[in-house]
Amino acid sequence: MEFIFIRHGHGEHLLDYPNQLNTSHPGLTEYGKMQVHQLREQITFSADDLILVSPTKRTIETAMMLTDNINFIITPLVGPRMFPQSAGAPFLNCDQIYSKVEIKDLYGNVMILDLNLNCWENGINKIDQDIFEEYARQLIDWIEDKYKRIFVISHDGTITNYRIILGEEGLSRNDFLGEGGVYRMNLCNK
């Protein structure tokens, strides 16, 4: 099984960093769209792949540009998550996820996955680490051996958190992917 993590392209909330971090539902900038366009030349998808996408505008836009007509699944289980966790850090509006109703209104009949976990209202950004790890393991168990390639289109902190859960050690913020970055991780029946 191979996990391919993709970080979204440059977002509008980064145009005037850090002054626009409280922008609600920022999309991709023109530069971010160019990054994703370049990424299309490196990534190919098949109908047999699982493509999980964070419920934010910038990640959904990234997925739509990358996948053409291949279905993807939006889930809060790969939504924004801080790394490392900091109890005193403020919640930023740029990391607010869309609700299921907003997703259906904005994007039509896209597939949504929640595994009946309580994470649509506030997402996974600031939940306790042990709860996040339980949710992440439930997602990984749901995937099981049904897919050979799992793409996760998400955010730098979320990707780093999942890499640790999947067995990497010693990661820090220095291991964050750049905008439109890709990280491949092969697993042998974990």
TrEMBL record:
Entry-linked Pfam families: His_Phos_1 (PF00300)
Domain of life: Bacteria
InterPro entries cross-referenced by the UniProt entry: His_Pase_superF_clade-1, His_PPase_superfam
Name of the protein in question: Histidine phosphatase family protein
Organism: Paenibacillus azoreducens
